[in-house]
Automatic annotation (TrEMBL), chain A:
Pfam families: Fer4_4, Fer4_7. This is 4Fe-4S dicluster domain-containing protein. GO terms for molecular function: oxidoreductase activity. InterPro entries: 4Fe4S_Fe-S-bd, 4Fe4S_Fe_S_CS. Residues 1-30 form the 4Fe-4S ferredoxin-type domain. Coiled coil: none annotated.
UniProtKB/TrEMBL annotation, chain B:
This is 2-oxoacid:ferredoxin oxidoreductase subunit beta. One of its GO terms (molecular function) is oxidoreductase activity, acting on the aldehyde or oxo group of donors, iron-sulfur protein as acceptor. CDD domains: TPP_OGFOR. It comes from Methanocalculus taiwanensis. It holds the Pfam family TPP_enzyme_C. Keywords: Oxidoreductase. InterPro entries: 2-oxoacid:Fd_oxidoreductase, THDP-binding, TPP_enzyme_TPP-bd. The lineage of its organism: Archaea, Methanobacteriati, Methanobacteriota, Stenosarchaea group, Methanomicrobia. SUPFAM superfamilies: Thiamin diphosphate-binding fold (THDP-binding) (SSF52518). The keyword Oxidoreductase applies. Residues 49-196 form the Thiamine pyrophosphate enzyme TPP-binding domain. One of its GO terms (biological process) is sulfur compound biosynthetic process.
Automatic annotation (TrEMBL), chain C:
GO terms for molecular function: 2-oxoglutarate synthase activity. This is 2-oxoglutarate synthase subunit KorA. Residues 263-347 form the Pyruvate:ferredoxin oxidoreductase core domain. The lineage of its organism: Archaea, Methanobacteriati, Methanobacteriota, Stenosarchaea group, Methanomicrobia. It comes from the Archaea. Coiled coil: none annotated. Residues 9-240 form the Pyruvate flavodoxin/ferredoxin oxidoreductase pyrimidine binding domain. Its EC number is 1.2.7.3.
Length: 90, 262, 360
């Protein structure tokens, strides 16, 4: 699972920054083209839901998504890891 | 089905200000509705006028955005004419307790099987921050420039006294508890009333030294007193600190209800 | 049978299955009858906390696809105005029975009047158009209630039955037909939006729970039903359509009686005063006055006035200070003389004849 912020919906209220127990969300430093400081993600792979949702088959934590007044936070399914054949060019 | 299906995605982002908690409450409600497996075509959201009442416009069910304060009679009409519909009312403190006060107590008295979610931001937000019946004493607003000198309503006590089956109060910070309370209220036959204290940084916080969202949320978090804790304090004869409000399930009973699905 | 009872019978015959009301003299008998009869036919009766809530509840009921009705009198009618505007703007078909009494304010609860005629048309804020029917006999109270439901559904507007205390409390012989004609609202066509008008300017009706996921709002809305309250062109188009859909059908739906269209002196009446005019005609068979009785007052069918080619003067007996006489004067060049009668009693036929003789 991958944590994403939809920057077309985010209004930059920073509530997610306040509630995330892992402090994954950091206040944004640059404004996007709508003039909104969308929070930045600090090592989102630490998110419990990202790590453990496939294992438990239910939503874990999820406070950031539920408190986000603008419905901007969601988790995307990621394709499971597939071994790649690495071609090394000399 | 996921929660996203309950949104009219083509209308997002919504008109609420940055930091407004109404969107949080919509999330919690839709999460609850979704977890109960309700069908979109059997659920009706009704609202009156105000910030809170814009909510049904973003929800992809059949929805009724009505006149100021009249959401409950409209919902009564829908529910009585077709008891098979699940009816949820979004309302605000001004909408519910000022202009709609009479409808509110009568809906509670009838104990009609609807769920009322009141987004109490303690102010008239949409019209620019006028004092409402839930504005705390001393708070500043555009119509109370020297501080509110009237006593505020306690909506939960009002609903309990008027006869509602389920009454709970939470804040937009307590999302998990709120989600559980709404889930419980939706299933409860009879009128379920859930008051949610919600931050309004634009029109309430700005005039009351709580300019940013974080400080409003912290203030709500610090002043919320769990019902269990209050009961314990009372039992021990200890005083309840000033300015605290009680959160939790305040009433849960099984009085005969009207318009329950057969 | 009493007029108010006939009204309730008409509503049930027309398929009304939801009634929300609040007691008010002289219309309470309608609510009482509905409370008694509706549960037996599978309908719902609910007594609300006030008339504002009654009107709100029937709009809610109507959106579930059930024929809904309320009954009231002057003071309650004033309270309902807020939600009548909502019903007109959201195109909700519903029927409001107004058994008029003397006003303003509490006025004469047990006496008749026709003082709400302009309020019915213009009472709520903003521009809109409605349908108002006026019965003059108990039989008509039954028939026009049925007709009111059909018109409300056809045009998706609130329809008013502007009766009065005299007809409401009158006991007369009524014949119930074996079957009344019930025309359900036109359903929404495949691929149409919930507020997208068809050729007759009326959108197909899509009640709740049918999968169209309609958003009903009192804000200015687009054809999808979504609020778009800051678009000037959209608002103008919407309001024009709401008025036009009713107004342009005014001659087609007109319901009237004409007596002696060649007369020079013509009475125009609706509701209870029609009875006085008819009696006057019976009392003076030698006179050849004309008479136009309107059963649908709003939208006003002004073409009917042209049917009186030789008319020199129009006499309009009304139980108000000339509310419809003013409307008639807008459309004709001849003098229109209102014959007002306040106080709750009907015009005396001899007085009407005297008024007519003065014009000879």
């Amino acid at each position: 699972m991958k944590l994403v912020i939809d920057d077309t919906r985010c209004k930059g209220c920073n509530l997610c920054v306040m509630v995330c127990p892992y402090h994954i969300f950091q206040e944004g430093r640059t404004s996007n083209r709508r003039g909104i400081f969308v929070p930045e993600l600090d090592r989102p792979e630490r998110c419990t839901n990202c790590r453990l949702q496939p294992l438990y088959q239910r939503r874990l934590c999820g406070v950031c998504q539920m408190i986000c007044p603008d419905q901007a936070i969601s988790w995307l399914h990621e394709a499971p890891f597939e071994p790649h054949k690495v071609v090394i060019e000399y | 089905m996921s929660v996203e299906d309950w949104y009219r995605v083509d209308r997002l982002p919504h008109i609420f200000c940055a930091g407004c908690g109404n969107g949080t409450i919509i999330n919690c409600t839709l999460e609850a509705v979704e977890s109960l497996g309700w069908k979109i075509d059997e659920t009706i959201f009704v609202s009156g006028i105000g910030c809170s009442s814009r909510a049904p416009g973003y929800i992809s069910t059949d929805s009724l955005h009505t006149t100021h304060g009249r959401a409950l009679p409209f919902a009564t009409g829908v529910k009585m004419a077709k008891p098979n519909f699940n009816v949820v009312v979004f309302t605000g403190d001004g909408d519910l307790s000022a202009i709609g006060g009479n409808h509110f107590i009568h809906a509670c008295r009838r104990n009609i099987d609807i769920t009322v979610i009141c987004m109490n931001n303690q102010i008239y937000g949409m019209t620019g921050g006028q004092g409402s019946p839930c504005t705390p004493k001393g708070a500043l607003s555009t119509t109370t420039p020297y501080g509110m000198d009237e006593n505020p309503f306690d909506l939960c006590e009002l609903a309990t006294a008027a006869g509602a089956n389920y009454v709970a109060r939470w804040t937009s910070y307590h999302v998990k508890e709120l989600n559980q309370a709404i889930t419980f209220g939706l299933q409860k036959p009879g009128l379920s009333f859930i008051e949610v204290l919600v931050q309004c940084p634009t029109n309430y916080g700005r005039r009351n030294k709580l300019r940013d969202v974080q400080s409003m949320i912290s203030a709500m978090k610090d002043h919320a007193l769990l019902k269990e804790k209050r009961d314990r304090l009372l039992a021990e004869g200890k005083p309840i600190p000033d300015g605290m409000f009680v959160v939790g399930t305040l009433t849960d009973r099984n009085r005969p209800a009207l318009g329950v699905k057969q | 049978m009493q007029g108010n009872d006939a009204c309730a019978e008409g509503a049930i015959a027309a398929g009304c299955r939801f009634f929300a009301g609040y007691p008010i003299t002289p219309s309470s008998e309608v609510a009482e009858q509905m409370a008694r009869k509706l549960p037996k036919v599978g309908g719902t009766f609910i007594q609300m906390e006030d008339e504002i809530a009654s009107m709100a509840a029937i709009i809610g009921g109507a959106w579930t696809g059930v024929r809904s009705m309320t009954a009231t009198s002057g003071p309650g009618f004033s309270l309902m105005m807020e939600n009548i505007g909502y019903a007109a703007f959201t195109e909700t078909p519903c029927v409001i029975i107004n058994i008029q009494r003397g006003g303003p304010s509490t006025g004469q609860p047990t006496m008749a009047a026709q003082g709400d005629m302009l309020q019915a048309r213009f009472g709520s804020h903003g521009d809109y158009s409605v349908i108002a029917l006026a019965p003059s006999t108990v039989q008509e109270l039954f028939d026009l209630t049925v007709k009111g439901f059909n018109l409300a559904d056809r045009f998706r507007v609130p329809a008013f039955l502007m009766s009065d205390e005299i007809i409401g409390h009158l006991r007369e012989r009524v014949e119930f037909p074996d079957e009344v004609e019930c025309i359900p609202p036109k359903p929404i066509r495949e691929g149409m939006l919930p507020f997208e008008p068809e050729d007759d300017l009326v959108p197909g009706f899509t009640p709740f729970g049918k999968g169209h996921r309609v958003h009903v709002t009192g804000l200015t809305h687009n054809e999808k039903g979504y609020p778009a309250s800051t678009d000037p062109d959209l608002h103008e188009k919407l309001v024009m359509r709401l008025v036009e859909k009713v107004e342009r059908a005014r001659h087609e739906i007109a319901d009237y009686d004409i007596v002696n269209p060649d007369a020079e002196i013509v009475f125009i009446s609706y509701g209870a005063p029609t009875r006085a005019v008819r009696q006057a005609f019976l009392d003076a068979p030698e006179k050849s006055y004309g008479h136009l009785n309107l059963r649908i007052v709003w939208p006003f069918p002004e073409d009917l006035l042209k049917k009186f080619k030789n008319a020199r003067v129009f006499l309009v007996p009304e139980m108000n200070l000339g509310q419809i006489a003013r409307e008639i004067q807008r459309h004709v060049d001849q003098p229109v003389i209102p014959i007002p009668r306040l106080g709750g009693e009907l015009h005396i036929p001899a007085y009407l004849l005297k008024c007519a003789e003065e014009q000879e």
